[in-house]
Amino acid sequence: MRHTRAHTGNRRSHHGLKNQALGFCSKCGSAKPAHAMCPHCGFYRDRTVVDVQAALLKKTERQKKRAAKTA
Ligand SMILES: [Zn+2]
User: Fold this and answer.
1) Which of 19, 29, 44, 45 has the smallest number of CB atoms closer than 10 Å to its CB?
2) Amino acid 12: pLDDT
3) How far is the CA of 43 from the centre of ligand 1 (A)?
4) Is the pTM higher than 0.85?
5) What is the pLDDT of residue 40?
6) Does 29 reside within a domain?
7) Any domain includes 14
8) Do the beta carbons of residue 42 and residue 27 sit within 8 Å?
9) 64 C-alpha vs ligand 1 centroid, how far in Å?
C-alpha cells in the first residue's frame, strides 16, 4: 500500500546516525572507540591485550606470501 511522503518521513525521522562514542587510551592517550581495544597500542583496561607490533608483522608477512603466490 502506498504511503504519503509525510508518513515515510515520519518513520525515517528516527533513522539518523548517532555520533560514535569515543574514549581515550589510558596508555598512549589517542582517541579510540569506547569499550574497545586501543588500535594504536593494543591496550584495554590497563593491560596489553594484543601485541600490535607482532600482529602488524604477521599481517605484512601474510600479504607478502600472497603476493608471491599470485606473481
Ligand atoms: Zn593506546
Assistant:
1) 19
2) 96
3) 5
4) no
5) 84
6) yes
7) no
8) no
9) 27
Distance 2 CA to ligand 1 centre (A): 51
Q: Output the pLDDT for position 21.
A: 87
61 within some domain: yes
Q: How many domains does the chain have?
A: 1
Strand pairing report for 43-44 and 31-33: unpaired
Query: Residue 6 domain-assigned?
Result: no
Q: How far is the CA of 24 from the centre of ligand 1 (A)?
A: 8
Q: What is the pLDDT along the chain (71 residues), one digit of tens a residue?
A: 899 999 999 999 999 998 888 888 888 888 888 888 888 888 888 777 777 777 788 888 888 888 888 87
Q: How far is the CA of 54 from the centre of ligand 1 (A)?
A: 15
**Residues in Cβ contact with 36 at an 8 Å cutoff, skipping those fewer than 6 apart:** 44
**Sign of the torsion angle spanned by Cα atoms 69, 54, 56, 48:** positive
Q: How far is the CA of 18 from the centre of ligand 1 (A)?
A: 24
Distance (Å) from CA 20 to ligand 1 centroid:
18
